[in-house]
## 1
Amino acid sequence: MRVFRTCALAAAIGLLGHSASLAQTSSLWNNKQCAVVLTYDDAIDVDLDNAIPALDSLKLRGTFYLIGSSPVVAKRLPEWRRAAQRGHELGNHALMHPCDGSLPGRTFVTPDNDLSKYTVSRAVSEIRANNVLLNAIDGKTARTFAYPCGDLQIGGVKFYDQLQNDFVAARGVMGGLQTAAQVDLTNIDSYMINGQSGDYLIDLVKQAQQSHTLVVFLFHGVGGGHGLNVDLKAHRQLLRYLKAHEKDIWVAPMVEVAEKIKSAQASSAAGKAKG
């Protein structure tokens, strides 16, 4: 009987701990099951023509990672400003979108934009210059960064280490669902979407709901406009699912979700230090 009571007590304590953990996670995700971040890279016409109108029609907000030198930024600047005013984040995707041309499959990289030929100081300076441009568009200082091509290093040096005070967080390109404690704010996981179905996109969200985690989508073309593309129908299916389940799913720009995670991680670290 004593063994039974001991086992029952241990099980009860385990359940209480699990419930407390879930409650803490739900609180972090604005008292919802999970968090979803919709990100769109490269500042292309379809962002303004397809993606933003689709999001606005359902009152959802996303993060648009802008390349400062993109002609679509210069030609359509008032539209980007209006998007920011409606709550979309204008994230930093570098001034020139440099990628490491020394890696396999990088024949598209031009000599002028070859990250492997950059110095760290040049990369940092260009990224900061893009922040100045973005601030001139939206008037905001808090934003996130997305690594062009997912490249983190120059000559073995992580250039973002010098930029951590300039951003709330940085988004990478490796897929994965993560709890707040697992998130690396210097390289947040994301699922790069290229041709997957609406059912696939929705299934990722359902997995996040079940595991109470963060899922980040990385889009380029939406209904065309880029070599990496999601079909308009698939994109619309995802947005409709998110809207239909908004009581259970927190959909927000990366900067807002990252700020929440950053605060939670800082609190956890402070608690452990006191302990």
## 2
Amino acid sequence: MMSKQINVLTTTDLHGFIANQGDQPALALQGLKQKFSHSLLMDSGDFFVGNPLTTFFTTEMAVSPLVAYANKVGFDVMVPGNHDFDHGIAYLKEQVKHLDADYVCCNVFSEEGELIFPPFAIKEVAGIKLGVIGLLTSRMSMISDFEVTRGVVVKEALLELKKQVAALREQVDLVLVGYHGGLERDLATHSEINYATGEDEAYKLISQTEGIDGFSCGHQHRVNHGQLKQTLVVQCGYRGSYFGHLTFDFNEQTEVVKRQEEVLATNSLLPAQKGDFYKEEDYQKWLKESLDLTHLTEFLQEKYGRQHMGIFISLQGKSRQQVINSFTIPYGVRIYHLSLAEYQTLLKQDWTFKVEDYPAGAQDFVIMTNSYEVPEYRLTDQFVDNIFDEYSYYLKQHD
């Protein structure tokens, strides 16, 4: 009896890392599909946004070079991540118009209740029908600013997923899901690894939905793979450093007789590929230009608005590159609650921007800063937001 093998290849959280210089594993994906026959390639989101280069693309070009990259790699199906909405739904729709891939998501709606993207795509590979459902984390309201998701309604992932799996199951030979969200439980031990906030719920989605053959998740920038019941699960890290590989063997009756998953390092794909999707000299010139800083504290006050919070920001200079370097990854800004004596020590330091907003006679002080020269035992909150990218978008919106 003859068998047929289908290869499902997955990526996630590339975050636009296709620079011409430095270590860029995502560039090696240009040769991925050529190495696997009978293959489908899907991406699970956070593709268009995530580093200064993508901010350059967004502010300087109507169509991001990441579109040309995606088309050259040969993605078949793509799913939005939370950061793909960071420049607004109109910008994302414009990029999608130029993609060769199907762009799908079953739980993102307009305020009028209409799906913004198709909920799924059906692709045929070597005579086998594959249905691919797109899904976004339910908790966009917790992790994205209202301004960038205006006009977008993200519904609960589980209910919408169940609807689409039921609609697809009898139409296709394989049901696949691309989910921009992470795992809340360990795939092997089933023990909790995250607080149950609803932001990451891949385990729940798979466990409570019958009929899913393959599930690609992301968002957490972690690497995982395993199997839950009959569902193969992969999570492929960050920046394209890894890709998922799901294999399904079919008999002549198009029944799956064997299934297996793995996550592979992208550096196993040789030879290395070059970029050249944009002009490097234009990017370097853009980095050296001065950034308008007149609205920086206003932006921070609006984004992290709290009563009577001071802002203390130290910058290396005024150029875009210097501002980028001033907000160190992963935590661009942090909030501290200081005593009077600790606050008085803070005041003696040199700051590029200093905003004091406290009632008369205050004895304790909530401050936001990008400096680490503050007592760590007073830290109350810290944020992974890309301050440079979001501030650049803020300027664009307030021109």
## 3
Amino acid sequence: MAAVAGRQASEAKFTTADFLRPAIDAAAAAAETNSTVSFSSLGTANFADFDFANGTRYPEQATASVGPATYKPGATVAHVPITLDRPTPNTIIARVMTEDGTGLVRGVAGVNYQPIYKSVIFRPGDPLTKTVEVPIILGIPQADFIVRFVEAPWGGKLGTDRAYVQCDFQKEPTPTQTEGRAPRIFTPSGTLQWRMSRDTLKWSDAGHDKAWSTKLPNGRSQPGNQETGIYLDGWLYRDAGIEPPLRYTDEGLVMHTQKLKQPLEWNGVFYNYGSVVLSGHNSKPLQIGYGQYEFTAKMPDRRGSWPAFWLISTAGWPPEIDIYEGFGFESWWDFDRYTANTLHGGANINRTFQQGIFMNTDEVYGIGGFTKGFHSFAVDIQPDYITWFIDGKETYQAVNPFAGFRWYPIMDVAVKTNGDYRDGSGDMLVKDIKIYSN
């Protein structure tokens, strides 16, 4: 989200390089075995010495380009290179597609080539060039076609966005390029520190070691985010005619949002909607430095709802790590197919960088239906990289600019709408939370 004090998220105490050196020797073995340690030889070498300036700086994004490709007559496949201009500090997903050529003689889909719509994934430490395969039906000279990006690469910058694929007798065919590592599988490496159950999940106004707080450290509203909902507490507002914002059922914790029958006031502003939040800022058992958070939930689908599970530094905002975020106030957002992961860097309530990705996880990874059933969203925070997972499969990774920080979790469903707010469900149903500390 963007943290407390505007969902915006502190000052790191060490640089990443201070923590990396002892683990470099184990890097290759860890990558090969899908260990929870996410080092890769190229990624470690490229960013171990980067000056993150106490969590206020981030390496420059890589630029992705489509390169020209050549194949010989009689070939059944053409290999088209997708290239980065530098090692990437985070996962880049480039969606590519084919397009007919131009001119009197041109390659035509279904005649000369089989059209494609694919994703090319670069993870930190991967080779800088990967190829995408295009099946060839009838390769003849001058029947050129185009491979292009669908849009700017997710997680990277846009370079050359298209290139021709040519059939040529005389030129050597473009070779296939080595693929990078396989996605990691989520396996907690830390010790289980806290797990959600009827007995362990408690909440109160301020929160304490045995209870989450029903408000953010800065209060019950986020006007800096243009939110229109007030974060409710069923006990504090028991005489206001509200529906219970929190209740534990056999399926798990229901985090309920609503349109209020009567506006409620906070800090001189009246709110027409009820949001809901649980924050661990006063709950030390929920806080870790390095380790893993795993959150299992079913998402709302109501327009104007803004569900999230995120982490804030115990020293203040920024930094922030968004494990899951759903932008239901955007008309284009599809709760069943899209997810978002973001890092917010900076210090003293001043964000200096924002690095993340909006992703169609259904298209890229075959993972979707987030409003129709329970899915797990996890993050592994290590000195070198932060890695995100959905249903146990790695979906994103970014170099960790926040070495030495400690974190507390927040889960909420904000409201950002002025509409009727009655379509579908505005509730997030949380089935499980596990917190592991390394």
## 4
Amino acid sequence: MQTKDVDRENIGIIAGGGQFPLNFIEAAKRENRRVVVVAHKGETSQQVADAADAVCWVKLGQLGRLISFFKKEGVAETVFLGTITKTRIFRDVLPDLKALALWNKIDRKQDDAILRAIANLLESEGIMVLESTTYLEHLLFPPGVLTKARPNKAQRRDIEFGWYNAREIGRLDIGQCVVVRDCTVLAVEAIEGTDKTILRGGKLAGEKAVVVKVRKPGQDFRFDLPATGLATVQTLARVKGSVLAVEAGQSLVFDREEMIKEADRAGIVVVGVVERDDGTLEIG
């Protein structure tokens, strides 16, 4: 099949699950971009595929198929958007020769190392990887308290305590979120994701769990930005948690209005925290 000429009006999406890919498609089309989607089976919604101008379904690990499709469609720019269930790496991967060759070159099988390696390979093939917030800066988490409830003195201490612990696990590329209570770490996010971390830590807390989610030091805005939304607050409400503290301007928030309404109903504090240049926190 003949390869189309590369066209800067085309833009690719390497799509996982959730609403982020659909948000991007809508925004990109407002900018008169033709959207070409590589959708992952078992992750990407059919709604995302239906909204695309061209779509190719792949299994996790079919990297050569992804690159060939983008080249056929004339894609020179792409973004990584949406979630991939990380535990699938052990049970539901179908790597092709290109993916296997890349995998064998990666010493640390952690998020940043894997995604940077894929991005470098794509760029060596003439496909530039853009920041995932392209066209979607309005989805960045805002600073300040978003809810009617405001953090009290004890909750502020827990936010500060959780913040520096979360930053440290991020530095180690383990996760982006911790659950704390009374300046005690109850759960650390690893491969299972934020919601399961909240459930695990919240069960240990009994109630009043404080969830802190931050960017990793040196976070690459091209992929794996921290994200929260309505589902996060609903999960926190299930364990009678009290606070969701998220790094403002460095993470994404989905369904903001619905999230705040749910938090107000549950009496949960939601706050966007800013880390000042001197390392102190502006909690709101």
